[in-house]
Each structure stands twice: as structure tokens, then as C-alpha cells.
Amino acid sequence: MIEDxxxxxxxxxxxxxxxxxxxxxxxxxxxxxxxxxxxxxxxxAQRCLxxxxxxxxxxxxxxxxxxYEGMARALALNGKIDEAKHFWAQARAAGxxxxxxxxxxxxxxxxxxxxxxxxx
Length: 120
Hints:
Blueprint: H1 2-15, H2 18-34, H3 38-54, H4 61-77, H5 81-96, H6 101-112
Helix pairs in contact: 1-2, 2-3, 2-4, 3-4, 4-5, 4-6, 5-6
């Protein structure tokens, strides 16, 4: 699973856009968070957020929500609960702003599931 996530990002670095890179960084952060690799998960979550902010005009509304969600989970895994709660709230607010009903449903289901490492 980890290797597949890195391979996906490697591919998108050559064939994709900044949006693809952002989503690849999110995927790696998520996989590493799920597998308990705290420091590296946080590194990739930060890269995802940085790309989101630097290329905001290219992103979809759900990209921002997922970037915040990724930071919240990775911070929580690292025991940085106060910071994680801040990003959890930002993710929830951004998720509430997702315009497309199907995209919002996907985000909401993802946000409601998985481990939050003491944030919720």
C-alpha cells in the first residue's frame, strides 16, 4: 500500500499537474497515517497543504478540505492534539463548503471514518 502510494506520486510528478501532486501527497500522508508512520505522514501532509495553498486557484473545493483533514490526522498521530483540533475544525468547515453533493458525500464519509487518534 505504501509503495503504491509513492509510485502514484512519482508518476504524477512527470505526467500530471500540481493538483495531481497535491492529491498524491495527500494519499501518501493518509496511507502513512493509517500505518502509524507518524513523522513521515506529517511531512507529506504538510507538503499536501503547501501545494494546496500555493496552487489554490487550481484546486477543487474538496482538495482544501482533504488537505486540512490530512494535516489533522497526521498531527493527531504525532500527539499534537491542539494543532490537530485546529485543522480538524478547518477540515469540517471546508467540507461544509463543498458544492457538489457527491464530492461532499465522499468527504463526509471519509471524515467520519478512520482513526482520529484522540481528536474526536
